[in-house]
Amino acid sequence: MKIYEKAPAKINLMLDVLHKRPDGYHEVEMIMTMVDLADRLELNALPRDTIIISSQAGYIPLDEKNLAFQAAKLIKERYNVKSGVYIHLDKKIPVAAGLAGGSSDAAATLRGLNRLWQLDIPEEELMDLGAELGSDVPFCVTGGTALARGRGEKLTRLPNPPQCWVVLAKLPINVSTAEVYGRLRANQLTEHPSAKRMSKALENRSFQDVCGELGNVLEGVTLQMHPEVAHLKDTMLRLGADGVLMSGSGPTVFGLVSKESKIPRIYNGLRGFCKEVYAVRLLT
Ligand SMILES: C[C@@](CO)(OP(=O)(O)O)[C@H](O)COP(=O)(O)OP(=O)(O)OC[C@H]1O[C@@H](n2ccc(N)nc2=O)[C@H](O)[C@@H]1O
Ligand SMILES: Nc1ncnc2c1ncn2[C@@H]1O[C@H](COP(=O)(O)OP(=O)(O)O)[C@@H](O)[C@H]1O
Protein backbone atom coordinates (compact mmCIF):
# COMPACT_ATOMS: atom_id res chain seq x y z
CA MET A 1 0.00 0.00 0.00
CA LYS A 2 1.14 3.54 -0.80
CA ILE A 3 -0.15 6.90 0.45
CA TYR A 4 0.79 10.54 -0.09
CA GLU A 5 1.03 13.46 2.37
CA LYS A 6 1.69 17.14 1.68
CA ALA A 7 4.09 18.94 4.05
CA PRO A 8 3.64 22.72 3.68
CA ALA A 9 6.06 25.45 4.77
CA LYS A 10 5.19 27.85 7.58
CA ILE A 11 5.89 31.53 7.98
CA ASN A 12 5.97 33.48 11.27
CA LEU A 13 3.76 36.58 11.07
CA MET A 14 5.20 37.67 14.40
CA LEU A 15 7.78 36.18 16.73
CA ASP A 16 8.56 37.47 20.21
CA VAL A 17 10.93 35.96 22.77
CA LEU A 18 9.95 36.54 26.40
CA HIS A 19 12.92 35.03 28.21
CA LYS A 20 15.44 32.20 28.22
CA ARG A 21 14.27 29.21 30.23
CA PRO A 22 16.28 27.08 32.64
CA ASP A 23 16.07 24.15 30.14
CA GLY A 24 17.95 26.25 27.53
CA TYR A 25 14.92 26.84 25.29
CA HIS A 26 13.33 30.28 24.89
CA GLU A 27 9.80 31.13 25.92
CA VAL A 28 8.17 32.47 22.76
CA GLU A 29 4.97 34.07 21.57
CA MET A 30 4.60 33.68 17.85
CA ILE A 31 1.87 33.55 15.23
CA MET A 32 2.36 31.10 12.40
CA THR A 33 0.48 30.28 9.23
CA MET A 34 1.02 27.89 6.31
CA VAL A 35 1.88 28.77 2.71
CA ASP A 36 1.32 26.79 -0.47
CA LEU A 37 4.93 25.72 -0.90
CA ALA A 38 5.16 22.10 0.13
CA ASP A 39 7.29 18.97 0.22
CA ARG A 40 5.48 15.84 -0.96
CA LEU A 41 5.88 12.57 0.91
CA GLU A 42 5.22 9.14 -0.58
CA LEU A 43 4.86 6.49 2.12
CA ASN A 44 5.11 2.83 1.09
CA ALA A 45 4.29 0.01 3.50
CA LEU A 46 7.13 -2.50 3.93
CA PRO A 47 6.53 -5.96 5.38
CA ARG A 48 9.93 -6.03 7.11
CA ASP A 49 10.78 -4.08 10.28
CA THR A 50 12.76 -1.20 8.76
CA ILE A 51 12.60 2.53 7.95
CA ILE A 52 14.09 3.74 4.67
CA ILE A 53 14.23 7.39 3.57
CA SER A 54 15.07 8.66 0.10
CA SER A 55 14.93 12.11 -1.49
CA GLN A 56 15.76 13.82 -4.74
CA ALA A 57 17.48 16.55 -2.65
CA GLY A 58 21.16 15.77 -2.29
CA TYR A 59 21.71 18.05 0.67
CA ILE A 60 19.64 16.55 3.53
CA PRO A 61 20.54 13.60 5.76
CA LEU A 62 18.74 10.36 4.89
CA ASP A 63 19.66 8.49 8.09
CA GLU A 64 18.52 8.84 11.75
CA LYS A 65 19.20 12.58 11.48
CA ASN A 66 16.29 13.04 9.08
CA LEU A 67 13.24 14.32 10.96
CA ALA A 68 10.92 12.07 8.91
CA PHE A 69 13.02 9.06 9.99
CA GLN A 70 12.83 10.20 13.63
CA ALA A 71 9.04 10.62 13.36
CA ALA A 72 8.62 7.12 11.87
CA LYS A 73 10.87 5.58 14.55
CA LEU A 74 8.98 7.34 17.34
CA ILE A 75 5.51 6.30 16.20
CA LYS A 76 6.68 2.72 15.46
CA GLU A 77 8.17 2.29 18.93
CA ARG A 78 5.35 4.03 20.82
CA TYR A 79 2.60 1.98 19.10
CA ASN A 80 4.62 -1.22 18.82
CA VAL A 81 4.33 -1.44 15.03
CA LYS A 82 6.27 -4.41 13.64
CA SER A 83 6.08 -3.58 9.92
CA GLY A 84 8.20 -0.94 8.19
CA VAL A 85 7.97 1.98 5.80
CA TYR A 86 9.82 3.42 2.83
CA ILE A 87 9.40 7.22 2.69
CA HIS A 88 10.34 9.27 -0.36
CA LEU A 89 10.69 13.02 0.29
CA ASP A 90 10.16 15.23 -2.71
CA LYS A 91 11.75 18.36 -1.25
CA LYS A 92 10.46 21.70 -2.49
CA ILE A 93 10.89 23.78 0.70
CA PRO A 94 14.36 25.35 1.01
CA VAL A 95 16.38 23.67 3.80
CA ALA A 96 17.48 25.48 6.99
CA ALA A 97 15.53 28.49 5.80
CA GLY A 98 13.19 29.37 8.69
CA LEU A 99 10.30 27.68 6.87
CA ALA A 100 10.10 24.51 9.03
CA GLY A 101 10.68 22.13 6.11
CA GLY A 102 12.08 19.36 8.31
CA SER A 103 9.43 19.89 11.00
CA SER A 104 6.67 19.73 8.40
CA ASP A 105 8.12 16.49 6.97
CA ALA A 106 8.10 15.04 10.50
CA ALA A 107 4.48 16.13 11.02
CA ALA A 108 3.41 14.72 7.63
CA THR A 109 5.13 11.43 8.51
CA LEU A 110 3.14 11.23 11.77
CA ARG A 111 -0.13 11.96 9.95
CA GLY A 112 0.72 9.62 7.09
CA LEU A 113 1.78 6.65 9.24
CA ASN A 114 -1.33 7.11 11.39
CA ARG A 115 -3.30 6.45 8.17
CA LEU A 116 -0.98 3.84 6.60
CA TRP A 117 -0.84 1.70 9.74
CA GLN A 118 -4.48 2.47 10.71
CA LEU A 119 -3.50 3.49 14.24
CA ASP A 120 -6.41 5.89 14.87
CA ILE A 121 -4.26 8.22 16.98
CA PRO A 122 -6.16 11.44 17.82
CA GLU A 123 -4.62 14.68 16.53
CA GLU A 124 -3.83 15.90 20.08
CA GLU A 125 -1.73 12.80 20.67
CA LEU A 126 0.07 13.23 17.33
CA MET A 127 0.91 16.79 18.42
CA ASP A 128 2.34 15.51 21.72
CA LEU A 129 4.50 13.05 19.77
CA GLY A 130 5.51 15.93 17.48
CA ALA A 131 6.68 18.01 20.47
CA GLU A 132 9.24 15.28 21.21
CA LEU A 133 10.74 15.83 17.75
CA GLY A 134 10.91 19.65 17.64
CA SER A 135 9.27 22.85 18.87
CA ASP A 136 7.56 23.62 15.53
CA VAL A 137 6.30 20.07 14.84
CA PRO A 138 3.00 20.29 16.81
CA PHE A 139 1.96 23.32 14.75
CA CYS A 140 2.93 21.51 11.55
CA VAL A 141 0.69 18.57 12.57
CA THR A 142 -2.43 20.78 12.65
CA GLY A 143 -1.53 23.60 10.24
CA GLY A 144 -3.89 26.55 9.81
CA THR A 145 -3.03 29.71 11.71
CA ALA A 146 -2.13 29.65 15.40
CA LEU A 147 -0.59 31.51 18.30
CA ALA A 148 2.25 29.39 19.71
CA ARG A 149 3.51 29.76 23.26
CA GLY A 150 5.88 27.83 25.52
CA ARG A 151 8.79 26.78 23.29
CA GLY A 152 6.30 26.76 20.38
CA GLU A 153 4.21 23.69 21.27
CA LYS A 154 1.30 25.35 23.15
CA LEU A 155 -1.13 26.31 20.43
CA THR A 156 -4.25 28.46 20.22
CA ARG A 157 -6.07 28.46 16.91
CA LEU A 158 -6.59 31.85 15.18
CA PRO A 159 -8.47 32.96 12.06
CA ASN A 160 -6.46 32.67 8.83
CA PRO A 161 -5.10 35.93 7.40
CA PRO A 162 -7.05 37.44 4.50
CA GLN A 163 -5.99 35.64 1.31
CA CYS A 164 -2.99 37.26 -0.39
CA TRP A 165 0.19 36.45 -2.29
CA VAL A 166 3.34 35.55 -0.39
CA VAL A 167 6.68 36.12 -2.10
CA LEU A 168 9.49 34.15 -0.46
CA ALA A 169 13.16 34.82 -1.16
CA LYS A 170 16.12 32.93 0.25
CA LEU A 171 19.71 34.03 -0.20
CA PRO A 172 22.33 31.25 -0.38
CA ILE A 173 23.18 31.54 3.33
CA ASN A 174 22.81 28.82 5.94
CA VAL A 175 21.41 29.83 9.30
CA SER A 176 21.29 27.53 12.32
CA THR A 177 18.21 28.02 14.53
CA ALA A 178 20.22 27.02 17.62
CA GLU A 179 22.91 29.61 16.82
CA VAL A 180 20.38 32.42 16.31
CA TYR A 181 18.62 31.69 19.62
CA GLY A 182 22.05 31.27 21.22
CA ARG A 183 23.16 34.76 20.12
CA LEU A 184 19.91 36.44 21.19
CA ARG A 185 20.06 38.46 24.42
CA ALA A 186 16.36 38.26 25.34
CA ASN A 187 16.74 40.54 28.38
CA GLN A 188 18.21 43.30 26.21
CA LEU A 189 15.33 43.49 23.72
CA THR A 190 13.81 46.97 23.65
CA GLU A 191 11.05 46.39 21.12
CA HIS A 192 8.54 43.56 21.11
CA PRO A 193 6.02 42.72 18.39
CA SER A 194 2.55 42.19 19.81
CA ALA A 195 0.75 38.85 19.63
CA LYS A 196 -2.35 40.60 20.92
CA ARG A 197 -2.43 43.19 18.16
CA MET A 198 -1.63 40.64 15.43
CA SER A 199 -4.46 38.40 16.75
CA LYS A 200 -6.82 41.40 16.58
CA ALA A 201 -5.73 42.15 13.02
CA LEU A 202 -6.52 38.53 12.08
CA GLU A 203 -9.88 38.63 13.86
CA ASN A 204 -10.73 41.88 12.04
CA ARG A 205 -9.60 40.33 8.74
CA SER A 206 -7.57 43.49 8.11
CA PHE A 207 -4.77 42.87 5.59
CA GLN A 208 -3.39 46.34 6.25
CA ASP A 209 -3.17 45.74 10.01
CA VAL A 210 -1.59 42.29 9.50
CA CYS A 211 1.13 44.01 7.43
CA GLY A 212 1.49 46.73 10.08
CA GLU A 213 1.94 44.24 12.94
CA LEU A 214 4.62 42.02 11.31
CA GLY A 215 7.62 41.71 13.63
CA ASN A 216 10.31 39.19 14.57
CA VAL A 217 12.89 39.70 17.36
CA LEU A 218 15.21 37.11 15.77
CA GLU A 219 15.71 39.47 12.82
CA GLY A 220 18.12 41.57 14.88
CA VAL A 221 20.43 38.57 15.34
CA THR A 222 20.30 37.18 11.78
CA LEU A 223 20.55 40.60 10.12
CA GLN A 224 23.61 41.43 12.17
CA MET A 225 25.28 38.18 11.02
CA HIS A 226 24.08 38.63 7.42
CA PRO A 227 23.43 42.30 6.47
CA GLU A 228 22.46 41.17 2.94
CA VAL A 229 19.15 39.90 4.44
CA ALA A 230 18.32 43.52 5.44
CA HIS A 231 19.08 44.56 1.86
CA LEU A 232 16.73 41.84 0.60
CA LYS A 233 13.96 43.14 2.90
CA ASP A 234 14.45 46.71 1.66
CA THR A 235 14.43 45.58 -1.96
CA MET A 236 11.20 43.63 -1.51
CA LEU A 237 9.51 46.68 0.03
CA ARG A 238 10.85 48.98 -2.71
CA LEU A 239 9.52 46.61 -5.37
CA GLY A 240 6.04 47.01 -3.89
CA ALA A 241 5.37 44.34 -1.22
CA ASP A 242 2.79 45.55 1.32
CA GLY A 243 4.58 44.04 4.34
CA VAL A 244 7.95 42.31 4.67
CA LEU A 245 9.50 40.13 7.39
CA MET A 246 12.13 37.46 7.96
CA SER A 247 10.54 34.09 8.76
CA GLY A 248 11.64 32.31 11.96
CA SER A 249 15.40 32.30 12.43
CA GLY A 250 15.80 33.10 8.73
CA PRO A 251 17.32 33.68 6.33
CA THR A 252 14.13 33.52 4.19
CA VAL A 253 12.36 36.85 3.80
CA PHE A 254 8.68 36.91 2.89
CA GLY A 255 6.56 39.70 1.47
CA LEU A 256 2.78 39.87 1.69
CA VAL A 257 1.17 41.26 -1.43
CA SER A 258 -2.55 41.90 -1.92
CA LYS A 259 -2.58 42.72 -5.65
CA GLU A 260 -1.67 39.98 -8.11
CA SER A 261 -0.67 42.62 -10.67
CA LYS A 262 2.32 43.56 -8.45
CA ILE A 263 3.77 40.04 -8.42
CA PRO A 264 5.74 40.00 -11.74
CA ARG A 265 7.66 43.18 -10.81
CA ILE A 266 8.55 41.89 -7.33
CA TYR A 267 9.38 38.37 -8.54
CA ASN A 268 11.52 39.49 -11.48
CA GLY A 269 13.21 42.22 -9.46
CA LEU A 270 14.26 39.73 -6.79
CA ARG A 271 15.34 37.06 -9.29
CA GLY A 272 17.93 39.56 -10.50
CA PHE A 273 20.11 38.82 -7.47
CA CYS A 274 18.44 35.95 -5.59
CA LYS A 275 18.14 32.46 -7.12
CA GLU A 276 15.48 31.06 -4.80
CA VAL A 277 12.29 33.12 -5.17
CA TYR A 278 8.74 31.76 -4.91
CA ALA A 279 5.36 33.46 -5.32
CA VAL A 280 2.68 31.38 -3.61
CA ARG A 281 -0.72 31.73 -1.94
CA LEU A 282 -1.49 31.32 1.73
CA LEU A 283 -2.92 27.91 2.65
CA THR A 284 -6.27 29.07 3.96
C1 LIG B 1 12.69 29.81 15.08
C2 LIG B 1 11.50 28.96 14.77
C3 LIG B 1 10.25 29.85 14.71
O1 LIG B 1 9.12 29.16 14.23
O2 LIG B 1 11.56 28.30 13.52
P1 LIG B 1 12.71 28.00 12.41
O3 LIG B 1 13.47 29.24 12.11
O4 LIG B 1 13.59 26.91 12.97
O5 LIG B 1 11.94 27.51 11.21
C4 LIG B 1 11.27 27.91 15.91
O6 LIG B 1 11.16 28.53 17.16
C5 LIG B 1 12.34 26.84 15.96
O7 LIG B 1 11.68 25.61 16.08
P2 LIG B 1 12.44 24.21 15.75
O8 LIG B 1 13.27 24.40 14.52
O9 LIG B 1 11.40 23.15 15.75
O10 LIG B 1 13.40 24.13 16.98
P3 LIG B 1 13.94 22.86 17.81
O11 LIG B 1 14.40 21.81 16.84
O12 LIG B 1 12.98 22.49 18.87
O13 LIG B 1 15.19 23.52 18.51
C6 LIG B 1 16.39 23.85 17.84
C7 LIG B 1 17.22 24.70 18.79
O14 LIG B 1 16.69 26.04 18.81
C8 LIG B 1 16.68 26.57 20.13
N1 LIG B 1 15.30 26.91 20.52
C9 LIG B 1 14.24 26.42 19.83
C10 LIG B 1 12.94 26.78 20.18
C11 LIG B 1 12.77 27.65 21.29
N2 LIG B 1 11.55 28.04 21.66
N3 LIG B 1 13.84 28.11 21.96
C12 LIG B 1 15.10 27.77 21.59
O15 LIG B 1 16.07 28.21 22.22
C13 LIG B 1 17.32 25.53 21.02
O16 LIG B 1 18.68 25.85 21.09
C14 LIG B 1 17.17 24.25 20.23
O17 LIG B 1 18.22 23.36 20.51
N1 LIG C 1 13.30 16.09 6.25
C1 LIG C 1 14.17 17.11 6.38
N2 LIG C 1 14.11 18.16 5.55
C2 LIG C 1 14.97 19.20 5.69
N3 LIG C 1 15.94 19.25 6.60
C3 LIG C 1 16.06 18.23 7.46
C4 LIG C 1 15.17 17.12 7.38
N4 LIG C 1 15.51 16.27 8.36
C5 LIG C 1 16.54 16.82 9.02
N5 LIG C 1 16.89 17.99 8.48
C6 LIG C 1 17.97 18.88 8.99
O1 LIG C 1 17.32 19.87 9.78
C7 LIG C 1 17.96 21.13 9.71
C8 LIG C 1 16.92 22.26 9.67
O2 LIG C 1 16.19 22.15 8.49
P1 LIG C 1 14.76 22.83 8.25
O3 LIG C 1 13.72 22.16 9.04
O4 LIG C 1 14.58 22.84 6.77
O5 LIG C 1 15.03 24.32 8.70
P2 LIG C 1 14.35 25.37 9.67
O6 LIG C 1 14.39 24.80 11.07
O7 LIG C 1 15.17 26.59 9.51
O8 LIG C 1 12.96 25.61 9.21
C9 LIG C 1 18.88 21.06 8.49
O9 LIG C 1 20.18 21.24 8.94
C10 LIG C 1 18.70 19.67 7.91
O10 LIG C 1 19.93 19.04 7.62
What does this structure look like?
It is a single chain. By secondary structure, the chain is of the alpha+beta class. The protein is built from ten helices and eleven strands. It folds into two domains: about 160 residues, Ribosomal Protein S5, domain 2 (2-Layer Sandwich), CATH 3.30.230.10; about 120 residues, 2-Layer Sandwich (Alpha-Beta Plaits). The strands form two sheets. Strands 1, 2, 3, 4, 5, 6 and 8 form a seven-stranded mixed sheet that branches. It has a four-stranded antiparallel sheet with strand order 9-10-7-11. Helix 1 runs parallel beside helix 2 and helix 8 crosses helix 9. The site of 4-diphosphocytidyl-2-C-methyl-D-erythritol 2-phosphate (SUD) has 19 residues, from strand 1, strand 2 and helix 5.
